[in-house]
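Q: How would the structure tokens look for this protein?
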Amino acid sequence: MKTTLHTDTHSPAGTVAVHKAESRGHADHGWLNARHSFSFANWYDPARIHFGALRVLNDDTIAAGKGFGTHPHDNMEIITLVTEGTLKHTDSMGNEGLIKAGEVQVMSAGTGVLHSEFNPDPQHRTRLFQIWIFPRRRNEAPRYAQTTLDPQARENRFQAIASPDATETPTWIGQDAWLHLGRFAAGRTERYAIKKPGNGVYAMVVAGSATVNGAQLSERDAAGVSETDQLTIQTGPDGAELLLIEVPMDLNNH
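A: Here is the predicted structure in token form.
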């Protein structure tokens, strides 16, 4: 059994759990090549079930012309960020359409929804991050939202891609959670202030390298930071693209 490579440190910067890219679960089904930050499907690590309300962070590559057949979800906020190619979505709420690179979709599964996800391109792959977050309240009515992100809005700053507030992001979620993307030049120091006291942030370096609250991270490495009110980020020599997922750490109300 493979040993999970992660370390926890306690300091004034908070509690920092480092998850190296190679420590993620890996499943290669041919049509789907998936990396799991948290226990998922046939990959199970008791130390990596969730980070607060963050239950799933999957880094998926879907082969040309392939996809997921119709399957159910309930009581989960599901955020899909397409980074390359196109994803065709169909669901039992009557939504059908394409999610293209640079777009984000939120599906609040609530009392239950069926959906399928398919790469309609017969020649090119699709790459995406899929994120599952436990909702604030169970058995709400299902919802769907989709929006196109302006890539210029995350140059050397954090761009909100999902939030609890529909006036802040059209892709709002039923949890006190905020998702941001940022792309920063080399040698910068950035700070991210926690939106809600008690929340933590799961920070993944999508590309490049960065130091997050003292943890040195390379591409696809991540750090779960809690018990602090801010993140301090120093970007590496090639700059860094980061995905920040701020979530409640207390699940007692779930």
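The domain at 6-248 is CATH 2.60.120.10 (Jelly Rolls).

The chain is about 0% helix and 55% strand.

Upvote if useful.
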